[in-house]
Every structure is written in structure tokens, then in C-alpha cells.
Write a structure and sequence with these properties.
By secondary structure, the chain is of the alpha/beta class. The protein has helices at 13-26, 37-47, 64-75, 88-95, 109-134, 139-167, 175-207, 219-232, 255-271, 303-306, 328-338; strands spanning 5-9, 29-34, 51-55, 79-83, 102-104, 215-218, 240-245, 248-253, 279-285, 289-295, 342-348, 352-360, 365-367.
Length: 369
């Protein structure tokens, strides 16, 4: 934040100085103030700030929308609009410049801080995308970054709007509404965190095979530990059963990868099953392999979608509004592959799905107590 250089385009000098004061308190560096479009564009070309705050309504031949368009086209610098009331045609022109945010006048520090932080983060993500385009060897990374940037926009917008409403005295907010907005912020934050973690995990398993570190593990105890939080959760809506044979199954697995594999499969079984529908988890072994079966009675999967189901960012077309990153099954598949194993699925729409994981073992150890 300290290194972020901000340029202000505002023809009311008192307002500009007020903004400068706020930004200084927040730790930002104001590198210039201009009252006209011509002066602003000249100074921005010389200074090359990290972010431009521009009033939509400026005196002179060029308004703030014209300035914003040139700043974006010529210098590729993100712009946030300062705005009070503007007519509909001007607002439509402003939208077409794809600004990084809007700050309503009169503004407050919370709205200012939230908009700037989100704009800077989004700009950095877009720069990362462009860098990935230049390096053709990172084409897959670019795909991930592009989709990550796209998927982050919605929760970021929710956080941005909720923060503005919480911090703006012009919005009458009772306690119930406040809790609703805070809930939206928390939900959006969790969604962003999950998406980022999934992308990082997918990138690691795709490019670093040294991540596979197997060790002899009691698989029965491992599965019990993984499943227990769902079984004991006070708000649980599903009956989750775990069957295994024999009582102890020792096998060589990477515990971190196996956790991601099974966690994603069980999470999906819960997510895509109506409340009260049972989830069955079965574990058994042969002389050559160990097997996991995760069975639900949920919405099922369209047969034509199964072929693409384990590809990154692919989801079944019948999931409706249920949220997901489209990475869980891709991570599970990659974790199985690092074990030299495989995942198969048997599913029927409206009747549920059964995912079967096979992990080969060279010298499996079975022991019943």
C-alpha cells in the first residue's frame, strides 16, 4: 500500500486536497493533482502513477470520462471514478471505459480505502495475466489466471458494494441489514480463499512431482479423522456412514494429497445432495490396491458431462446455482495420478453418483484386530 502512487483529477481544489489528506492518512502517496483534462494527461504521462482518481464531471472541453479512456488506452493505468449525480448518457459512457471502481460523493475513508485496495489487487492480477500471455510456455498458467481473475470479480464486487454501504452514512442500516452485509462479505471472502487455494494446489501438483511424498499410513484412521468433522457438525444435514474391511489398512500414500482427494469427493457428495440424503463411504483392499467408494443420492451427472468432468474449471451443466470452482475433481484426479492410481464415476441424473478411487500398492499390509 505504501508504494502505491495515486494521481487525482478534480477541478474543485478543496475536494482534491481533502482526498489528498485522506490518502495520506491511509498511507498512500499522492504524486499529483490536476484540475483539467489537458494538464492531467500531460502529468500522468510523465509521472506514470499506479492509480488515477478522476471526477466524471470536469470543466473544459474534455470531461472525466474522456480522461479515463485515454489513461486506460494510452498508459494502461487503472482508473476509479469520483462521482456525485451524472446524467444517464454520461454514466453509460463511463461504464464503457471499464473503470476499476466508483466512489460516491461525499465519500468517506472506508469507501476510499476499499475501492483503492480492490483496484490495485485487480490491476496486479491483470498484469499477471498479460505476463503469462507473453510466455507461451506458461499457457496453462495463463488459463488459470484468466479464469481466476474472472471468478474473483463477482465476490470482489459483493465485498466492494457491501463495504461502501456499511461505511456510507447515507445508507440507513439497521442491525439486521448490517449482519446481512457482514455475512455477504464473509461468504465472498471464503469463496475467494477457496478459489485461490484450489488454483495454487492445482498449479503445484501439475508442475512439481516432488510434492509426492508417500509414507505408511493407517488408512482407516486417516479416513475417520477426515470424515469426523462432517459427522459431528451440529448443523449437519446428511447421514455420513463409513464402512471398511479389515479393521486396519496400512498403505503407502501421500497424506496431504490423499486428504485433498477425499475431501473434494466427500465435499461434492454433500454439496450436490439434498438435505437428509445419506452419504456412504467405503474402504477396502486387495493384494494389489486399496479402493475408496464415495456414494451419494444427489442430483447426479449428465452422461455427456462425465467425459469432461475431471478437467480444470469444468462443472456439470445441471448444478444450477450451487457454487463451486470447477477445480475439486481435477485436483482429486491429479492426486490419484501421482499415486499411479485412477478415479472412475458411475452416475445417473436424479439418482446420485458413485466415485471409485483405486490406488495401487506394491506391498500392501492388511491386519485385522
Amino acid at each position: 500500500m505504501v508504494d502505491t502512487k495515486i494521481f487525482i483529477v478534480e477541478d474543485e481544489i478543496l475536494v482534491a486536497r481533502e482526498i489528498e489528506g485522506y490518502l495520506g492518512k491511509l498511507g498512500y502517496s499522492v504524486v499529483g493533482i490536476a484540475a483539467s483534462a489537458e494538464t492531467a494527461l500531460k502529468q500522468i504521462a510523465e509521472i506514470q502513477p499506479d492509480l488515477v482518481l478522476v471526477d466524471i464531471v470536469l470543466k473544459g472541453e474534455q470531461d472525466g470520462v474522456s480522461v479515463a479512456k485515454q489513461v486506460c488506452d494510452r498508459f494502461h493505468i487503472p482508473v476509479i471514478y469520483l462521482t456525485a449525480y451524472v446524467d444517464a448518457p454520461t454514466l453509460e459512457r463511463a461504464k464503457r471505459t471499464y473503470p476499476f471502481g466508483y466512489i460516491l460523493k461525499p465519500f468517506n475513508q472506508n469507501a476510499l480505502k476499499a475501492n483503492i485496495e480492490i483496484a490495485v489487487a485487480r490491476h496486479h492480477a491483470e498484469l499477471a495475466e498479460k505476463s503469462a500471455i507473453i510466455d507461451s510456455t506458461n499457457s496453462r498458467s495463463f488459463d488459470y489466471l484468466s479464469i481466476l481473475s474472472h471468478e474473483l470479480r463477482n465476490p470482489i464486487s459483493v465485498i466492494q458494494l457491501s463495504t461502501i454501504m456499511l461505511g456510507d452514512s447515507r445508507y440507513p442500516i439497521d442491525e439486521a441489514k448490517k449482519q446481512q452485509l457482514l455475512g455477504r462479505i464473509q461468504s465472498s471472502t471464503e469463496r475467494m480463499n477457496q478459489l485461490i487455494e484450489d488454483v495454487l494446489m492445482m498449479g503445484e501438483t501439475n508442475h512439481d512431482t516432488t510434492l509426492f511424498n508417500p509414507e505408511i499410513t493407517d488408512i482407516v484412521e486417516f479416513c475417520r479423522t477426515l470424515i469426523e468433522p462432517w459427522q459431528c457438525h451440529p448443523d449437519r444435514q446428511h447421514n455420513i456412514t463409513f464402512a471398511y474391511n479389515p479393521d486396519h489398512i496400512y498403505a503407502s500414500v501421500d497424506q496431504k494429497l490423499l486428504w485433498h482427494l477425499l475431501n473434494n469427493l466427500v465435499s461434492n457428495a454433500i454439496k450436490y445432495s439434498p438435505d437428509a440424503n445419506p452419504i456412504q463411504i467405503r474402504l477396502y483392499g486387495t493384494d494389489e490396491a486399496i479402493y475408496f467408494e464415495i456414494q451419494d443420492q444427489g442430483i447426479g451427472i449428465l452422461q455427456e458431462d462425465i467425459e469432461y468432468l475431471f478437467q480444470p474449471f469444468q462443472r456439470g451443466r445441471n448444478v444450477g446455482k450451487l457454487r463451486g470452482t470447477g477445480l475439486g475433481l481435477a485436483i482429486a484426479k491429479r492426486a490419484a495420478e501421482l499415486h499411479k492410481g485412477e478415479i472412475t464415476v458411475d452416475s445417473q441424473v436424479g439418482c446420485g453418483s458413485t466415485f471409485i478411487v483405486k490406488l495401487p500398492q506394491v506391498n500392501p499390509v492388511w491386519r485385522s484386530l
